[in-house]
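Entry 12.
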Amino acid sequence: MIAEVALKLGEAFGVVTLHHATQQIVTDREALKRALSSYVLFRSRTIRVSMSQLLSLKVGEKYLLIQSARRPQLTPIGGVVRYFPSEASNLEGKVRFSPEFKKGLEKYDLRGFLKGRDFVRFLRWYASASGREQLALAREIEEEFLEVGISAIRDHVRRPEFVMDRAVHEGPDEIQNEGYWQYRYFEVLRLREESDVSKQLADFVKTQARGNPNFVLVTTAEIKKGRTNDCPASAGNGKGAQPLR
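Predicted 3D structure (tokens):
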């Protein structure tokens, strides 16, 4: 069994490549369209979608990961993209997207369900970047740092600039015993080094994370090793993982 968190880390940071009949990693929408050329097979099936942005931040030759209150496993900083309340009538009506959560701000997370016949329409809507966050990562950085008690992050997330390293398409894959298929998409971004604001944010993140047990550094070797172990700890939460000092 492959540890899911380690697998996700490897995909996100480009450390591993998957080879599977129903699971491909591609870097552009055209490749995704080719991979889903037989999408008619999914027309009547329920598909759960999740659209996220993750931060790729290296300290030396190691990647910075976080363990927050929301997620007990170590993951890259980041999370789900949200759509705007003003877009709800279009997304939930015309596109027929059904949010996973029905209350609070999480209602607007781009994490939910739709029928296979509406899948391509949803992807086109997302690619238009209309009616949704384009840089959800700045919000996620602030939220995750507040969760671990670093309130000064508020002064450092004003208009940071990001560069996309890669886009990962995962699935659709059947989720056994759940009655649906799952598609996950995440954009892996890094802070633009040429931007003073982004450089200051990166320096602040690295400095404030030191000594905080919620942050660890892992090497690419540890991420690769985690792919073949059953225990999620192999992804950097335990063996070989180094807390920032």
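Annotation: Residues 18-191 form one domain. The chain is about 25% helix and 25% strand.
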